[in-house]
Design a protein that fits this description.
The protein has about 300 residues and is of the alpha+beta class. It has a single domain, classed as Thiol Ester Dehydrase, Chain A. About 15% of the residues lie in helices and about 30% in strands. The protein has helices spanning about 35-40, 55-65, 65-70, 130-135, 175-180, 205-215, 300-305; strands at about 10, 25, 30, 70-80, 90-95, 100-110, 115-120, 160, 230-240, 250-260, 265-275, 280-295. The strands form two sheets. A ten-stranded antiparallel beta sheet has the order 1-5-6-7-4-9-12-11-10-8, sandwiched between helices. A hairpin with a 2-residue loop joins strand 2 and strand 3. The protein is globular and about 65 Å long.
Length: about 300
Amino acid sequence: MTFETPLYLCGPLREPRQMLADQEYSGHTSIHDDSMAEKLGFQAGPIEGPTHFSQFVPLLAEVWGQDWFERGCFSAHFQNMVVEGEQVRAFIERPAPGATRIRAWAEKADGTPVLEASASLGPDDGDTLLDQRMAKLREPEKLVILSDLHVGMAGKKDEQVRMGPDQNMGKLYPFSLNQKLERITENTPWYSDGSSTPWGRAIIPLEMVSVLAEYSSKEAGFPVKQPAVGLFADQEIRMVDGPLFVDEDYLIRREIVALSESKRTESYWVRSRIYDASGETLKAEMLLNHATLKHSYPHYDEEAAG
């Protein structure tokens, strides 16, 4: 007997942990600090968006196996903030045989949406959710905080990065991979024991690819006016020749691929391409929409009127 009823996979309710309360950038605390978040009109310091990506990995590994880790793409639009103590559940469509793109989403325990996403297997997976969202962007009327940026602007230099198991990831991410693994919602020996993986190396968790990619982002030198507080509004992580390995050297090149504006924010979309140490083989990419809050920049009204 067959049915045309769409079926879904979901994971358990989890309580993701806040690890960015002490985050610092451009000389000030971030939106993940409770007092800064409250000052900007939010309930409390939110948990960073890619933290939720970990809850999808067991579901995607269930449907696509090893292929997911080598050429998977997760493309997400963040909808509502989560604070520590709230529970979240991840959902994905069960793909039809041979399907390379499915819908994914996360909800709080009460059904409040957390994020919507597409999950896919490259390289021939078509438009992702963020491809579709970027295609609908309108030209910003007037940028203030981001007035010195332009589409096509590249980072000032190639950035050399690595993630050791006990390496503190700096002011943006004041913790190590091992500290993250003590709190990550979904753990596996693959993140710490190379002998357990198909590649003979420990792999960097999907949510920590975001940390690796942003670790050296200040070196790009994009001239964003300060002080201003931002948040991640959209994020896509794609494995091209994955996975990425713990204690491996990589090289990052960045480019601004879009600028946009809403009533409350100015956004710059950055594509960060992660290469092997030689800079010749593309291993992974991250697309990130940095949404800067207009009212967090003290000179916004004055400069907008000028």
